[in-house]
């Protein structure tokens, strides 16, 4: 008789969108959105063997067509990006182009549309069934809105993936954004669409760009409760962040009943990030990705598209966090105690003069206090949590104090 003890289910087919051409998204040598973030992530993921897994397909995305882009952007905006791409010397600040955050550069349209193509590739893989999970670590450009560039983002690839899923017959999509900055562009695009639940956990707009994302932003007239915002106080660390996530996100995902999750994993919430004021570790960011994976498994038959996003500690944080993300998406998690391959560390020393940590984790304790043990009105994180729960939970028949 066959013994089934110890057998594990086969890993899910996984698509990774990657091609070195994606590094053409380049605002210049002094801009924080350095294309090296992507090259170093791919280099580390490859060194860890993640691209060689039998069930993982690494595919080069195509440049998204104008027809593709018009699913969430206006024709006037796409035309403006094309003009700035062809003539970077002529700014269009009304459209957010040629600004300090989003300087125009030659080939900008093609470079931006290729990153968008990565998330569209992921969506098509889910729709066709060739993959159950997918990751585009070059995506997550969540500040771009229908009509305007913003916050280093030209085309909103995550919104394009969500819309492609909807157009392909998916009835409901949950978008979960864990970047340190509010996912304002994605929220605005689906503001009045009851088929899309957007959840953003971010540093409060009182202390960080874009200055939005408060608890009372709950969606349009026809979609009340489908915009969810957890505006965390500056300096929130792993324990507070994970407490907030688990006090809000699982309950709403369960109530919303999505068929696919699309997530944005900006890692600028790390304590070493130069642009933000949160205090997470790589360990905490890995745990966030694990939590999203668990939601996809529980509620979406594992259907999940993960994207990158912000993250400006280029050599030490971004490659490790996003390699963890790739491993989790591929059901081949990298252990926090695993060594960072010496070949990768040597490459970074020689090319960038930086010293990369020896291990894949930061060696911290990410223990967090469950919401079920009680609400502390003296705790700023708890006040944030209850503000969001009071706005949103009753709209789903949930009790903001006890569910």
From TrEMBL:
Record InterPro entries:
AcuC (IPR003085), HDACs (IPR000286), His_deacetylse_dom (IPR023801), His_deacetylse_dom_sf (IPR037138), Ureohydrolase_dom_sf (IPR023696)
SUPFAM superfamilies associated with the record: Arginase/deacetylase (SSF52768)
The Histone deacetylase domain, residue ranges: 31-326
Offer one Pfam family short name for this entry.
Hist_deacetyl
| The keyword Mitochondrion is assigned to this record | no
Any single GO BP term:
epigenetic regulation of gene expression
Location of region: Disordered: 81-104
Q: Which domain of life is it from?
A: Bacteria
Protein keywords: Acetoin catabolism
GO MF assignments: histone deacetylase activity
Please state the pathway this protein functions in, per its UniProt record.
Ketone degradation; acetoin degradation
Q: Which CDD domains match?
A: HDAC_AcuC_like
UniProt xrefs under PANTHER family? HISTONE DEACETYLASE HDAC1, HISTONE DEACETYLASE HDAC1-RELATED
What does the sequence similarity comment in the record state about its family? Answer: Belongs to the histone deacetylase family.
Entry protein name: Acetoin utilization protein AcuC
């Amino acid at each position: 008789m066959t013994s089934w003890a110890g057998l594990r289910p086969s890993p899910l087919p996984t698509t990774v969108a990657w091609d070195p051409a994606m590094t053409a998204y380049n605002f210049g040598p002094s801009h924080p959105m350095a294309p090296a973030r992507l090259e170093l992530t791919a280099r580390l993921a490859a060194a860890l063997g993640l691209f060689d897994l039998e069930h993982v397909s690494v595919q080069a995305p195509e440049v998204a067509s104008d027809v593709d882009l018009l699913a969430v952007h206006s024709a006037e905006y796409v035309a403006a990006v094309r003009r700035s791409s062809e003539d970077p010397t002529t700014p269009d600040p009304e459209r957010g182009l040629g600004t300090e955050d989003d300087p125009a550069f030659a080939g900008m349209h093609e470079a931006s549309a290729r990153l968008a193509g990565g998330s569209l590739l992921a969506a098509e893989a889910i729709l066709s069934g060739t993959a159950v999970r997918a990751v585009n670590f070059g995506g997550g450009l969540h500040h771009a809105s229908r009509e305007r560039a913003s916050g280093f983002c030209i085309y909103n690839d995550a919104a394009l993936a969500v819309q492609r899923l909807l157009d392909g017959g998916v009835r409901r999509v949950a978008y979960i954004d864990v970047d340190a900055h509010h996912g304002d562009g994605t929220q605005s695009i689906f503001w009045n669409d009851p088929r899309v639940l957007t959840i953003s956990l971010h540093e409060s707009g009182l202390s960080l760009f874009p200055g939005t994302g408060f608890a009372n932003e709950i969606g349009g007239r026809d979609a009340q409760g489908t915009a969810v915002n957890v505006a965390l106080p500056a300096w929130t660390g792993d324990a507070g962040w994970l407490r907030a996530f688990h006090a809000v996100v699982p309950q709403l995902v369960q109530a919303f009943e999505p068929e696919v999750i699309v997530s944005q994993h900006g890692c600028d919430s790390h304590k070493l990030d130069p642009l933000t004021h949160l205090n997470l570790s790589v360990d905490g960011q890995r745990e966030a990705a694990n939590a999203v994976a668990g939601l996809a498994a529980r509620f979406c038959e594992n259907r999940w598209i993960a994207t990158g996003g912000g993250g400006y500690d280029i050599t030490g944080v971004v490659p490790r966090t996003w390699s963890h993300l790739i491993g989790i998406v591929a059901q081949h998690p990298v252990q926090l105690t695993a060594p960072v391959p010496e070949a990768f560390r040597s490459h970074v020393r020689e090319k960038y003069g930086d010293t990369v940590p020896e291990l894949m984790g930061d060696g911290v304790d990410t223990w967090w206090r469950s919401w079920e043990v009680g609400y502390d009105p003296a705790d700023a994180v708890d006040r944030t949590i209850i503000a969001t729960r009071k706005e949103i939970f009753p709209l789903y028949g949930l009790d903001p104090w006890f569910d």
